[in-house]
Amino acid sequence: MISRLPTWVWIGAGTLALVAGMVNVVGLIGFEHQGLSHLSGTTSQLGEALAQGSGRAALQLLLVLAAFVAGALLSGLLIGGAALQLGRPYGAALSIEAGLLALAVPLFEHHHMGGALVAAMACGLQNALTTTYSGALIRTTHVTGMFTDLGMFLGNRLRGLPVDGRRIALCLLVATGFLCGGVLGALLFPHLGYRTLWLPALLTGSAGVAYVVYDLRRRTTTNTKR
């Protein structure tokens, strides 16, 4: 049940949605108007490029798709399992994401395709990190599913069917976080350019450190009670 989600999951979901919103808007503004945090639009653009016979554009888009998948693959190798569970190396995964976002900055500034690839890889890693927990599907790098769930839950409520209000709250949290990240990224980009990505890198790195500290304290407390 969504009501069983611990506080650290709620905080992490909101923070990572904010991060993804910032990364995506930087891609949309700065890198050939290319979204980086989800693949629906990228796949459509790939189809268009293939139909038009634009080999160079198709290759770039295909590489972005592959980089996102590679990030998800890396997350699967690091974390394993489908459920969120304390004790798994989320801190290491978040630290790697922070490093990828930081690396994207100089690559973008030198107009190198690698900037988009490592940023997309960071998003793929993040999206795979936040996954199924007790029947609640959490995705933080896109909000289509959250808006779909929100509409479905509201429709059920209008029919008089029981709906877990915390599930609606989770959808709103992720959608709002993603939106606020987009607003913040759009406001910062004219002043900082691609260095705007330093902020999401700092946030994910800090989240990784906070998780490690939290988990260590939890283990210490548990061992003390034994």
Q: What does it look like?
A:
- With 226 residues, the chain is mainly α.
- It has one domain (2-219): Up-down Bundle (Growth Hormone, Chain: A), CATH 1.20.1250.
- The protein is built from 8 helices and no strands.
- α1 runs parallel beside α7 and α6 runs antiparallel to α7 (165-192).
- The chain is globular and about 60 Å long.
- 38% of the residues are buried.
- Keywords: Membrane, Transmembrane, Transmembrane helix.
- It comes from Coralloluteibacterium thermophilum.
- Pfam families: DUF1275 (PF06912).
Low-confidence stretches at least 5 residues in length (pLDDT < 50)?
132-136
Counting DSSP H or I runs of 4 or more residues, the number of helices is 8
Strand content: under 5%
Mean pLDDT across all amino acids: 86
Helix content: over 70%
CATH class bucket: Mainly Alpha
* Class of secondary structure makeup: mainly alpha
What separation lies between the terminal Cα atoms?
A: 29 Å
SSE succession: HHHHHHHH
Please identify, by name, the CATH architecture. Answer: Up-down Bundle
Radius of gyration: 18 Å
Total domain units? 1
Reported for the largest beta sheet, the result is: none
CATH topology description: Growth Hormone, Chain: A
Shape: globular
Give the number of DSSP strands.
0
Write the layout of secondary structure elements.
Layout: H1 7-30, H2 40-52, H3 55-79, H4 90-109, H5 114-129, H6 144-158, H7 165-192, H8 198-225
Helix pairs in contact: 1-5, 1-7, 1-8, 2-3, 3-5, 4-5, 4-8, 6-7
Compose a concise summary of this entry.
The chain has eight helices and no strands. With about 230 residues, it is mainly α. It has a single domain, classed as Up-down Bundle (Growth Hormone, Chain: A).
